[in-house]
## 1
Amino acid sequence: MDSSPSEQAGEQRLQKILAVAGVGSRRACEELIAAGRVMVNGRRARLGDRVDPRTAEIYVDGERIVTDTTKIYLALNKPRGVVSTMSDDRGRPGLADLLGQGPNAAPGRPPLPGRVYHVGRLDADTEGLLLLTNDGELAHRLTHPKYEVPKTYVAEVPGPVPRHLGRVLKQGIELEDGPAKADSFRVIDATPRKALVEITLHEGRKHIVRRMLEHVGHPVSRLIRIQVGPVRLGDLKPGRWRHLTRTEVSALYAAAGDRSPGAGLSRGAQRGSRRVEDRRNVG
């Protein structure tokens, strides 16, 4: 069957776009549209609408749905000793090598098809979660200080850790380039000689976690980032990467200040959306 002129020009039926994006079956997506729970480019969608998935801003129950299939969103577990650049003029292993695209890539590992950019940096001695994408809008939001996206780290420091340390860090300390404070702090494990602590903060000054802990007398010997906004490192092995889920991408947009026109929908409507998601994940 021949495509209509609008489909040939890039526009497609909205329910088809939502189904391809993983929101639900076409029938379930039609029900969402008919119920007035889908917004496209600032207006409530109607059955029969055709839109361009590459450019449309689509929300379901206030949740951003990325429908541009050319967009790539990755979580990578950066090992210690790898620099946070796609290429390095000194020949050090970099991110492109972990993606199978660099000169030091491991043999036999298929390269990532497509080019991505790292969202922020981790210094060479810091391990853990690094996000990569070719979505410039989201990358800008995640790194802009205005949006205050929290990041969580686990640090190994000398022990013992005094009970008041968390209070000191959350109240704020004065560093050479200005004040700094933690959003949260807790001790995960402790012995008389060393401790594992978890610290969350929403700013990204260079070496900020290391400098804060050294300032209070507990220099870091190992540092791992375990979370950026709603995305967790989980059990992803060092040097490996995975694609983010649709839910994670939507949650990142929300964490980075994306204010949808459907954010005020009822809890009942949002529960319905979760039921559609649950049906999609069965089997």
## 2
Amino acid sequence: MTGHNILLAGFGGQGILFTGKVIAYAGLMEGMEVSWLPSYGPEMRGGTANCSVCLSEDPIGSPLVTEPDILVAMNLPSLEKFEKDVVPGGLIIVDSSIITKKVARDDVKVIYLPASEIAEKAGIKGAANMVILGKLFKETSFCTPENLDKGLQKTIPAKKMDLLDKNRLCIRLGTENRFQNPGASAPGFIFYNFDSTSSWKDPSRYRIPASAAGCAPGSALGAISP
């Protein structure tokens, strides 16, 4: 487990701040030093929003992330604004359902994840942030699966706790390595369904044949780069 300086950015209403809170709470459960600093435009929904999250085993000097080792970009303005700030060797996760532009740099790892499309095809429109969170967790292991789930439960308001399993499902979709590389032929694809008793940590309960999920066998949810 190592520390991270994470910057999440996109439009208001995409769950940027919510995702940052989940990460921060998960870090707290790990016993790490944590900071969470939101920043948003005059109009929350539809305006700009970004969130700085620091996870560290040492005291944190400043909560503002100016040189992230992880950037999550959920719209084009955010990618164009913050791409240059990512440290060499860092990670950029792009919602390629929304952003078609490619990252110009060759000194960072880039994942093009069609998060909005994945969430929508799973029947949970608007949960692209949780798909991205799942991929971020898969790539970095910034906490244990148990503490990620605790962070999620801590962040969801009590009046919206009925959405817990849907968020768990989207996290699971993000962690799965079942997306095809661009241009690759797609094999029979596994879609997902969930029931109210399932946890995102138990993927076997979500798997059903693609044909039973309302799509043709051999279709795929989306594509990411390796």
## 3
Amino acid sequence: MGLGILLALPEAQSKQERLMDLNLQPPAAVCGATHEPFTAGQRVVSFLVRDPAQPEILRHDIAEAALPQFTPGGPVVCRWVHAYKPRKPGENADRALKLTAETLFLTLADPATEPTAENVRLVQFLALMLERKRVLKPRGRSADGERLRLEHAKTKQVYEVPAGELTPEFFVQVQSQLSVLVGEPSAPAA
């Protein structure tokens, strides 16, 4: 069983506002496929999946070894691999409950998270959006010129994001990926 992210948002909000503020439950302590508890340091694959039956984004945390047993049940928005860290006693779980563009970027761009082909475009777009909002500050390119170096304004941590061309095709692909996350655009009023 995965954990749910409920999109309980007014219709008047824009896609960007919905992307900036999704409510999220904390990471699971057990595998969504096998229902076995995770152990500290175990490799876990986390998925955000759009539920085709209702306006929800579901989070699924699956042990890497159990991936063959997992079926997403809808379009995968993104996925990332990370080492499981059990929550400390007394730790405030509510802090991690809100998925924002910033927290999604920090999760996907974290050096401990293995990049996937599904996420590179999303990370590039989030970096562009957060740079415009001055959450990230440009710090040049990596030595090989293949990655942009961006400093997170609050933490001063530097993240490296694959450099890419911002072509019309890039934005069409990002729009398609984001529509899975925040829903299709409304039809224009006649």
